[in-house]
Amino acid sequence: MKKVKIINGRIITPYRIIKNGTILIKGHQIEAIVEGDADAPDYEVIDAMGNYVSPGFIDIHIHGGGGHDFMDGTEEAYLKIAEIHATYGTTAIAPTTLTCARADLLKAIDLYKAADAKNTRGAQFVGMHLEGPYFALSQSGAQDPRYIRNPDVAEYKEIIAYGKDVVKRWSVAPELPGALDMGKYLKSQGIIAALAHTDAIYEEVLEAVENGYSLATHLYSAMSGVTRRDTYRYAGAIEAAFLIESMDVEIIGDGIHVPPPLLKLVYKIKGPDRIALITDAMRGAGMPEGESILGNKDNGMKVIIENGVAIMADRSSFAGSVATTDRLVRTMVQMADIPLVEAVRMMSRTPATILGLERSKGTLTAGNDADILIFDENINIKTTIINGNLSYVSADFETLTTTI
After folding, report:
1. Band of residue 166 on the pLDDT scale cut at 50, 70, 90
2. What is the CA radius of gyration of the chain?
3. ∠ CA(282), CA(284), CA(288), 5° rounding?
């Protein structure tokens, strides 16, 4: 069994930083974490050289990267996306679909299963996130309106049965006819029901929570705020997410989808244990700026990548993010003034907890999976270790061993 120790690191735990700490890895798991050096003469050594050592980043909402999209319809897309994001510190991902036809959702599930069996170097797959097609047309955003429809009982039950143990989350507009029954059914199947692309008011969100909904998908994006109906003012889904203490939220922490003042507001109200940072990345993540495609490479929507974000061709709205997880943590620390320990928690422990993986992922704890990062003061990733295997080492980072 492979044995490795990481020395000379500033180890980030959920609540503090252990200076000059050591991590022992045995096989695929973390064996121990100690202050100072550990007497382990038969272990291969990685010298962190004073850099931070962190739990791997977990992205629970991601569509693509490196020129590929999960809707491309190929195993290669799944594998390449997982590999490119590993170089930015992502050790686990929830491949996310877009609004599409039923047949495309079933195909996406098949491809997930096939690619998962072959994924040896990239970020691990931790379940699928189905985003749509049951959305409010008025909040379609970058989702293709041709496929938006109300919840169909026969359809979603078929898809869930087909994707048993694969579909872990489904994002739905809770105000739609049939959405409350769908929320109850998702919860009964152990699937996270999330509200998204919605015009719901507070009262409708409250009822949704009573019927199984527990997460707000990309808070502020394609989501109602304070609104008027027949003269009267109502709190929207955004305010509901703030007011309902039990509701988790995810935010695209690139500083553009949610600008720094709002990042600070979300953090102040919800706190790091209720916030998961997400990239919501499309195929343009890790790629040069210019024209791109959102969704399937053959029939998706044309978009433009500029100034660090993807926008619709007519510049009417954002078209997804090109962020990577290291950028999210960097933004939260440098632009939203959030402590590094808590920014890392929102990119690791909190998403792991939302997915029910807190006993194996999300923290540097003895017995957990050895998903570990080494990065510098500017959150530049130097080393990515996934499940005890070396996935990535930056060209400028030297370690005492590259054999793991």
Report:
1. very high
2. 21
3. 170
Q: What is the torsional sign of CA 72, 78, 83, 87?
A: positive
Q: Are residues 262 and 172 in the same domain?
A: yes
Angle among Cα 154, 156, 162 to the nearest 5 degrees reads: 100
In a domain, 398, yes or no: no
Q: Are residues 116 and 166 in the same domain?
A: yes
Write out the residue range of the structural domain in which residue 17 sits.
3-54+363-393
CA distance 226 to 200: 10
Do 83 and 159 fall into the same domain? Answer: yes
Tell me, yes or no, whether 400 lies in a domain.
no
Closest CA to 64 of 250, 258, 280: 280
Give residue-wise pLDDT tens across range 125-165. Answer: 999 999 999 999 999 988 989 999 999 999 999 999 999 99
Non-local (6+) Cβ contacts of 203 within 8 A are: 234
Give the helix ranges, DSSP H, for 271-389.
Answer: 325-334, 340-346, 349-354
Handedness of CA 362, 368, 374, 376 (dihedral sign): positive
3-state secondary structure of 46: strand
- Say what the pTM is: 0.97
Residue matched to tokens 């195993």? 75
- Residue linked to tokens 């709002």: 262
Total domains present in the chain: 2
